[in-house]
Amino acid sequence: MIPDSLKFKKLVIGCGNLIFADDGFGYEVISKLEKMELPKDVGLIDAGTGAPYYLMSIMDKDCPVEKIIIVDVIDFKLEPGTLQKMGIDKLKKIDKYNFDAHDMPLSNYLIKAEESGVEVIIIGCQAKRITMPDIEVGLTEEVKNSLDDAVNMVLEEIK
């Protein structure tokens, strides 16, 4: 049975952990989107560090998802706050997508989703500081300043 949170054609999935500084970027973008009126076929998920669990369910043949937009921090050694939209071809360059804290690589699920016909887009923001394992709630100024542009990138993808 498909969970209600996955009964949409387009899903925006915010990844990361808001208690580790800039790793809360995905959460903050989802929070802004939740305050907007979005098309009825768009679902929002604050997945935290549990994105692989949602993606496993998307593989179900009865799941209606046609497009996934992942919102997360990246580390491409860019200027902090720099946004980048990419497809799964760049996943291998993002360490956290190949090995995560639960040994469930997100990249495998995203590749399988795309192979099954689901369009996959990643909107990444270059982090300045991720404090794990030390707790620090709140984004750095550079990443915070990129939130509105990230929201606009998501809105372009869900038209």
Automatic annotation (TrEMBL):
Alphabetical list of InterPro entries matching this protein: Pept_A31_F420-red_hyd_d, Pept_HybD-like_dom_sf, Peptidase_A31
Keyword Hydrolase among UniProt keywords: yes
CDD domains: H2MP_F420-Reduc (cd06064)
Pfam families in alphabetical order: HycI
Gene Ontology molecular function, alphabetical: aspartic-type endopeptidase activity; enzyme activator activity
Keywords, alphabetical: Aspartyl protease, Hydrolase, Protease
Gene Ontology terms: biological process: protein processing
Name used for this protein in its record: Coenzyme F420-reducing hydrogenase delta subunit
Family of this protein: Belongs to the peptidase A31 family.
